[in-house]
Design goal:
alpha+beta; Serine Threonine Protein Phosphatase 5, Tetratricopeptide repeat; Heat Shock Protein 90; 24 helices; 7 strands; 651 residues; two-stranded antiparallel ribbon; single chain
Length: 651
């Protein structure tokens, strides 16, 4: 789905620009002039990239790539940054998120060495990274990039046109995208609708002041969506039609298609089915012409809903079938995996840069320590003749001690950074390659049966087996990326618990339902002990606790033999705490914690599961233990959390 990010985020490029055919002819004629300097040719190619980015994405990216290549050959930094900026925006509109993220990261790296007069490009790079993360619904990380961009923007004198309006549009976008979680019921909390409306009104005022039609249209669209959530359907339709008119004036077919689709769905809620079907057809035709495959699929869904309401069942069925064909879940999974891998690579590069900086600082401090030591010896010899030398020597000794302490601290930081880097390389290189190789092998088998009609068709049991293998490989990749991202966040100190009252029975039922299919596939019984209704709620971070239980159950599934039982349960070992446990019947281990950790690694895990559980428990003030079962084989993993009522009384 082209989310509201593209309505407000990409409008950061919005500025007065004449997109008439006369302007295009003038630019192309200038590009053909003989003897045109390389820098001016790069500027013209950048303007052509900007000219086409809303109407012809292929032409936009072609001109941008030509300008970027010429700027690199001519060492024209401003032209290089301009082409990177426009190419990243075009890739984002084209839903090529991997390329958009790669270009935005390259732009950010190049701005590190740029002079202050080009600092505005750093704001654009940070904003582009925030837009891409917002498109992936990673709103917290997107907001972090937006805040960094605002800090840089405060240093600009003067602030470029539209940049202040874009800052409010970014905040508006973050809040409005969070509203999509309530799209089915259209009843969002007022604490979320109110700031969305406030930021949208600020963006609308600044856009009208600066003459930014795309930001103005985006703000009108967000105000229309907010009116929907307040059940003001007529007001929402009026605001959306204003936004549609602005997008048509600006020549923005992507956004025009999106507004037509949302307006059609709003009319469906008002039972205006004929008008809704007409607008959905217009939106689908625009998306097909651009082309915009995700948008086309969503438009077909809206059209199918409208035709079904009008009684045209055949037309609704055809539209729904076409929409499902366009939504290829395997392509979306591969795209998400590539984006996650690219993000890890980018974070690794930044860590390498930090390591180089720490190494250089260490060398400077070592040289300074040597110089201080030499001065200390010279002044120590002179202290026999001059009493004042004693004072100087004491001062230098104090400086030397501080230098050694600082040097030791830097060495420790350098060692930790290198260890984290080596761990990330090992996990990515070994564990991510294996499931992806298996995934590709399974797809090759399916493709072979499709391309070779002479081969005997597999029966339903074989197909179910292949589908089960595909699902298991995808689940392994998901668990690996989940643990890897949690581990990276924990190592950088960005993971913060958000404690809340959590029901123990609901928590255990939720995680058991998640792993029930995997347990059945291995012939293992996954059961939840009864009598949990008397267990008091715990004070914990729900997502962290679910992550711990998922890792413990996954570890138990790897260790437990077929026809055995894995038991989930809870008890209160003391009045102020609740112990959640996962008990399996796997083989006994002489050293429970260390051996189970090694066993998990040998059976295909990343080796991060149990350390991650231990770290998440420490973050929540809880405890984690692994103990052998009494009188039977297997282990019991226990996470002990504080009781909610006791925390409330003490606070």
């Amino acid at each position: 789905m082209v989310c509201l990010l593209l309505l407000a985020g990409s409008a950061a490029l919005a500025r007065p620009f004449d997109r008439s055919p006369r302007t295009l002819d003038s630019l192309q004629a200038r590009l053909r002039q003989p003897g045109l300097p390389d820098s001016q040719r790069v500027d013209v190619l950048g303007l052509l990239c900007w000219y086409h980015w809303q109407s012809d994405l292929k032409a936009s990216r072609r001109y941008g790539e030509q300008g970027l290549a010429l700027a690199l050959r001519a060492r024209y930094l401003k032209g290089e940054l301009t082409c990177l900026r426009y190419l990243s925006a075009a890739a984002l509109v084209d839903q090529d998120l991997v390329q958009a993220q790669r270009l935005a990261q390259q732009l950010l790296r190049r701005t590190d060495a740029a002079p202050p007069r080009l600092a505005a490009f750093q704001v654009h790079a940070l904003k582009a990274l925030g837009d891409i993360l917002s498109e992936q619904e990673q709103y917290e990380q997107a907001a972090r990039y937006y805040r960094q961009g605002k800090e840089v923007m405060r240093t600009l004198r003067p602030v470029p046109p539209n940049m202040e309006a874009t800052a409010y549009a970014d905040l508006m976008t973050v809040y409005s995208n969070r509203l999509t979680a309530y799209e089915k019921t259209l009843r969002a909390p007022d604490s979320l609708v109110r700031p969305t409306t406030g930021y949208a009104r600020q963006a609308l005022r600044l856009a009208r002041r600066d003459g930014a039609p795309l930001i103005e249209a985006s703000a009108l669209m967000v105000l229309g969506l907010a009116a929907q959530y307040r059940q003001q359907l007529d007001s929402a339709s009026a605001l959306m039609r204003q936004a549609l008119a602005r997008y048509r004036e600006a020549g923005s077919p992507y956004y025009e298609s999106y507004v037509l689709r949302v307006l059609a769905r709003n009319l469906l809620r008002g039972h205006q089915y004929v008008e809704a079907a007409r607008l959905a057809r217009q939106a689908q035709a625009l998306a097909h012409q651009i082309p915009d495959v995700p948008g086309e699929a969503l438009n077909l869904d809206a059209l199918a809903e409208a035709l079904a309401a009008l009684g045209d069942k055949d037309g609704a069925y055809r539209a729904a079938v076409r929409a499902r064909q366009l939504n290829d879940s395997a392509t979306a999974l591969a795209n998400q995996a590539a984006l996650a891998q690219l993000q890890v690579k980018f974070d690794t590069e930044r860590k390498e840069h930090q390591i180089k900086a720490l190494t250089q600082r260490q060398r400077l401090q070592q040289a300074e320590a040597i110089r201080q030591r030499q001065r200390l010896w010279l002044l120590g010899a002179g202290a026999l003749l001059l009493a004042v030398g004693l004072t100087v020597m004491a001062t230098l000794a104090l400086r030397l001690r501080r230098s050694r302490i600082e040097l030791a601290r830097q060495n420790e930081a350098l060692a930790q950074a290198r260890a984290t880097q080596d761990r990330l390389y090992a996990v990515i290189g070994h564990d991510l390659r294996a499931p992806l190789t298996g995934f590709m092998g399974l797809t090759d088998v399916l493709r072979l049966h499709q391309q070779r009609p002479d081969l005997p068709a597999p029966d339903s049991r074989q197909l179910l087996g292949l589908l089960g293998d595909v699902g298991e490989q995808a689940a392994r990749v998901t668990r690996l990326l989940d643990n890897l991202l949690h581990w990276a966040a924990a190592q950088t100190g960005e993971l913060r618990p958000r404690p809340e009252p959590v029901s123990v029975p609901e928590l255990l039922r939720e995680v058991s339902v998640l792993y029930e299919p995997a347990a059945q596939a291995r012939g293992i019984v996954l059961e939840v002990e009864g009598g949990l209704s008397e267990i008091a709620p715990v004070r914990a971070d729900r997502n962290m606790t679910l992550t711990m239980l998922r890792n413990l159950i996954s570890n138990a599934l790897h260790a437990a033999p077929a026809q055995s039982t894995i038991t989930l349960g809870a008890h209160q070992p003391a009045p102020g705490s609740v112990a959640l446990f996962v008990r399996d019947q796997g083989p006994g281990l002489p050293l429970a914690g260390a051996e189970r950790k090694k066993t998990a690694g040998r059976r295909g895990g990343t080796g991060l599961g149990l350390p991650l559980v231990h770290h998440l428990a420490m973050l929540q003030g809880a405890s984690f233990a692994l103990e052998p079962n009494v009188g039977e084989p297997g282990l019991t993993a226990t996470v002990t959390l504080p009781v909610e009522q006791l925390v409330a009384l003490s606070s």
